[in-house]
Design brief:
- Helix content is 58%, strand content 2%.
- The longest helix has 28 residues.
- It is built from 11 helices and 2 strands; from the N terminus they run αααβαααααβααα.
- The chain is globular and about 115 Å long.
- Strands 1-2 form a two-stranded parallel sheet.
- The protein is mostly helical and 264 residues long.
- The protein has a domain of 151 residues: Biosynthetic peptidoglycan transglycosylase-like (Penicillin binding protein transpeptidase fold).
- The model has no long low-confidence stretch (mean pLDDT 86).
- Helix 4 packs parallel to helix 10 and helix 6 packs across helix 8.
Length: 264
């Protein structure tokens, strides 16, 4: 009996000392993966459908405030170089001066009425220039691309901005007519420090309304578009003078063309 009792106690002691069996890991909850996929789908939907909705609204509403205006305003609060104000005065399609629209057409995008948002002829030429000079590709943006950038995006050379610009451009060409694109562009494009659109530019630079601009003044405003905050139309640099003369020569060639400026 004593031996049996001792063996029983030894077995219990050994059992007590032996480690407990390892627990099997709990199955990983699927809620985290579902939540991640849900947010991914929402993000993709916003990126895909957001621009379509914005461009659709642009058919009916005039943008009085843009992301670029907001960025410039913030920049002006922290910069001693720029004021960063916002001066924009909307003109309807009928109120926009033909001389300015024509000057923009000949200087920025002479094939505007022929392409569908992207001028592949100019892209090829810009790439050839880049290979020859070793500089980045520049100067191939169409009016539609510039309008997309001025209305919905920001300036800069990031691939993200360029990709979004191309997507907006594609939809603008399909949901808006050319005259509406020109109207929006002429009213929101940056034309100086805190100056947006031709009416504000005419009043700030030349002290006249856009309707009173001379051909030379309209050509000067179109000429400064590549560098609006760095060039002064009243004290033009040699580069700006060269561009101004070039725009005037092109205007002399086209006369009253193109008829499509007014939708004719």
């Amino acid at each position: 009996m004593c031996q049996q009792a001792l063996r029983s106690l030894a077995m219990k002691s050994k059992t007590a000392r032996s480690p407990a069996p390892a627990r099997s890991p709990r199955p990983r909850s699927a809620s985290g993966g579902l939540r991640w996929r849900r947010w991914l789908l929402i993000t993709l939907a916003v990126l895909v459908l957001g621009p379509i909705l914005q461009v659709t609204l642009l058919r009916f509403f005039n943008p009085r405030f843009t992301p670029l205006m907001a960025l410039r305003w913030v920049e002006g609060r922290f910069s001693n170089e720029y004021e960063g104000g916002i001066d924009q005065r909307w003109l309807t399609r009928r109120q926009l001066p033909d001389e300015f629209l024509r000057a923009v057409w000949v200087s920025e995008d002479a094939r505007f009425f022929q392409h569908q948002g992207f001028d592949w002829v100019e892209v090829a030429a810009a790439m050839a220039r880049a290979r020859k000079t070793g500089q980045p590709v520049r100067g191939s943006s169409t009016i539609t691309q510039q309008c997309a950038r001025s209305t919905f995006l920001w300036t800069g050379r990031s691939y993200v901005r360029k990709g979004l610009e191309a997507y907006y451009t594609w939809w603008m060409e399909r949901l808006l007519d050319k005259q509406r694109i020109l109207e929006v562009y002429a009213n929101v494009v940056e034309m100086g420090d805190g100056i947006y659109g031709v009416e504000a530019a005419a009043r700030r630079h030349f002290r006249v309304g856009a309707a009173q601009l001379t051909r030379s003044q309209a050509a000067m405003l179109a000429a400064l578009l590549p560098y609006p905050r760095g060039w002064d139309p009243n004290e033009p640099s040699p580069r700006l003078r060269w561009r101004h003369r070039r725009v005037l020569r092109e205007l002399a060639k086209v006369g009253n063309q193109p008829r499509e400026l007014r939708g004719g």
